[in-house]
Amino acid sequence: MNELVSLCKRRGFIFQSSEIYGGINGFWDYGPLGVELKRAIKEHWWNTMVRMRDDVVGQDATIISHPEVWRASGHVDNFTDPMVDCRKCKLRWRADQMEDVKKCKEGGEHDLTAPQQFNLMFKTYVGASEDNAALAFLRPETCQAIFANFKQIQTTSRQRIPFGIAQQGKAFRNEVNPKNFIFRSREFEQMEMEFFCHPSESMKWLEYWKEERFNWYVGMGIQKEKLRLRQQDAKELAHYAKGAYDVEYEFPFGWQELEGIAHRGAWDLTRHGEFSKKDLAYFDDQTRERFIPEVIEPSAGVDRTLMTLLVDAYEVEQIVDEETKKSEDRVVLRLSPIVAPVQAAVFPLSKKLADKVKPIEKSLRRDFRTDYDDAGAIGRRYRRQDEAGTPFCITFDFESEKDGAVTIRDRDTMEQVRVKVEDIGATLRQKIDSWKRVPTAGATLGAKRLSE
């Protein structure tokens, strides 16, 4: 994890917010490569969950909702963690995570206070006054606005049950103890979908969505042996849940939840109907039945997905140059081209060729995420792109002026193929569409694995 965090800072993926002032715990900023990776993840999720389906529509609700939304959902009364303070070192932890806490930095054991319940919602005020009448909250999850808007969206989109409403957006939780890089932070981004269905079919849809969501991660090239689908037992389930599964990944700090797929029953719509005094029942004009739909919720975190992709893709391999016989480490992120911040980097072999190469790179921007790089030796440029996760590098050399072709180099195998300039786009598309994760790089030109 230390190596990965260092790479993220050095290459502009992720770094601590307000770092020049000492930073603020639990808040992270995304640099040029990080924001492209994040946007690619969200775009891929949206394409999969909304655009490619007939039974899911989207929404984008505000971060601040009417305070009654959070009373109806139970967050005002129940969204708490047990908190303890050490009287000696003045530090604070969650009482249920004390097994991870080391000895007190002031010496000996911690002198802990009795646990107190701490509400995780960030409070704010709407309007000029700062009193209870103006009290509001930053949303701790995006899904409640979906339930509040259910009737409006179902009517305007003319969707019939079963159908889903999806949303992406920021959420905020005042975590007692943020930790493990961006895995648990105070400001994060969610990708959630509420799938509304008839109660008689809800368990069938739970089974369907748990498989769909597990396969989504496998489809992004995450190593299947590092993933598992775990069913929550009765003690873990929320009081309203009829069942739930967690997609988990084996991080360096153990198996942790990546996404939850929960059967929320009809609890949310029922509660919002009671608190708002509005009828949120669905009327089926074919069967003439009126009922409160039950809900299956796949809920994923953008930041956790991004961290999983980085952890899973990060490799350091040792290669040796056959001419110099010197070995060196090659840091590589084996990111899927679907989400890689840069899908293709374009190089002139020499800066003298820049005028001929820049138009090629600009023309590729319309269809791919590209980068232009002419700084340093070609080998160093390859290494920079390897650790940025760029799957393909395109080199225009002096021979290209004669034969109208370029060299496309594969990040994972380091194999190189010669392609006509006019065929670059089609070749890249074919390579992206057919990409599969390979466990190790293959034979290389001018270098080979030390183990070989």
Give a structural overview.
- By secondary structure, the chain is an alpha+beta fold.
- The chain folds into two domains: 2-79 and 120-309, BirA Bifunctional Protein, domain 2 (2-Layer Sandwich), CATH 3.30.930.10; 322-449, Rossmann fold, CATH 3.40.50.800.
- The chain is built from 13 helices and 24 strands.
- It has helices at residues 2-10, 32-51, 67-73, 75-78, 143-148, 150-157, 202-219, 267-276, 302-313, 354-364, 378-388, 400-403, 424-433, and strands at residues 14-16, 28-30, 56-58, 80-85, 92-94, 116-119, 123-125, 135-137, 163-172, 187-197, 227-231, 243-251, 254-265, 282-284, 289-291, 294-301, 314-321, 327-333, 344-348, 370-372, 392-396, 405-410, 416-420, 447-449.
- It has a seven-stranded mixed beta sheet with strand order 3-9-10-16-13-12-11, with helices on both faces. Strands 20-19-21-22-23 form a five-stranded mixed beta sheet, sandwiched between helices. Strands 5-4-6 form a three-stranded antiparallel beta sheet.
- Helix 2 packs across helix 9 (302-313).
- The two termini are 28 Å apart.
How many alpha or pi helices?
13
The strand count comes to 24
Residue windows where pLDDT falls under 50 for at least 5 positions:
441-452
Average residue pLDDT: 91
Global Rg: 26 Å
Spell out the CATH superfamily of the largest domain. Bira Bifunctional Protein, Domain 2
Q: Which CATH class of the largest domain applies here?
A: Alpha Beta
